[in-house]
Amino acid sequence: MWLIGVYIAIAAIAFGVTIAIAAAFLFLQWKRKKHTSCKNGDLELQQLSLSVRTTSEKKVSFEGSKLNDDDSLNGPHIDITPYKTTLVETYTIEDLRKATEDFSSTNLIEDSVFHGRLSGKNLAIKRTSMEIISKIEFGLFYDAIHHHPNIIRVLGTSCTTEDPDSFVVFEYSKNGSLKDWLHGGLAMKSQFIASCYCFLTWNQRLKICLDVATALQYMHHIMNPAYVHRNIKSRNVFLDEEFNAKVGNFGMARCVEDLLQDPSSWSKGYLAPEYLQQGVISTNIDIFAFGVILLEILSGQTPVTRANEKGGEEYVCLSQKIKFILQSDNAEELRQWIDSAMGENYSFDAAVKLANLARACVEDDASLRPNAGEIVEKLSRLVEELPQGDNQLASLCESSCKPLVKAAAIAM
Fold first, then answer.
1. What's the average model confidence in pLDDT over 358-365?
2. If one looks up domain 173-411 in CATH, what number appears?
3. φ, ψ dihedrals at 227, nearest 5°
4. Which terminus of the chain is more solvent-facing, meaning fewer CB atoms within 10 Å of its CB: N or C?
5. Which DSSP letter does residue 222 get?
């Protein structure tokens, strides 16, 4: 009987130990499974959050928005701060010398900007100072999600203590600047066939207007806080191979010198009255400058012209000219003012609407100017009204622009 009791006790202890080990094993398996489940759940939640955020960004950034009064002041925001990481590259001076054939004059685009090609990629390389580079807000380019298709991207820099010059490397635009096309800039003469008579069609002009307005909508209503470019002008609007417009000098607002001291009357043609008189900086000054670009696109004229052909110091701004023309209520005067390069290949009704929109943008009273969202909405309607599959305009575009693009390809 004593031995039977011992055997029973040993069996009970063995059974208990087995149960305990099995329970511990099951508990560890359950905990591991729960941890994996939570981790996957968090990952799925992050992916869902990213998907929703990206969809929201695309909808607000790249479609014409309908803003109410509150939106016009605050706008829908995407928080792109704080700027933690920048995705700009560091180039060596050897890289840039190789890309530009040792900064050859044949690669000079305009002023201190060179065309370069590195690792099969076209680049625009600007010679500048370390002081300017230190003022560039590289944080605005911190990831691909926030890269807007209508804004020129800063790709990298080259700064060394051994070389007195520093360089900023930008995304390259094959068809130069809007200024080149409207006013025959230096880039047109150096990169393309100078003798070729090329011009922008009405369809292209309207699309360029919408592209620039969309970029402004992003800066003013999507970015948080709102970003004031401060240097919107036709020279800073660039055209890619498909004539999509991109705004340059983004992220360089702090690099803009005091434009009140700029001796160039050309630049002053873009400056809003409140900035000229009081130095006020707001999104409204970008809207004013954009209005001047609309007037350039419509008329083919420069932002300022001399008051008389004999010369002198007096200048007349396009922003003032359009007010006189629209006040006269003379359709023929407006028709004569529109760029003759287009001939009759444009809608006069649409041109009148564009002229009135430009007139609103250059109002002396900043509070009366439309915001970027309202501008995008109006321009979107004009673009939607363009005739689809218009063979005449398509062939005109091909015949007038193709020689320039071909020449640009050869220049590379």
1. 97
2. 1.10.510.10
3. -110, 125
4. N
5. I
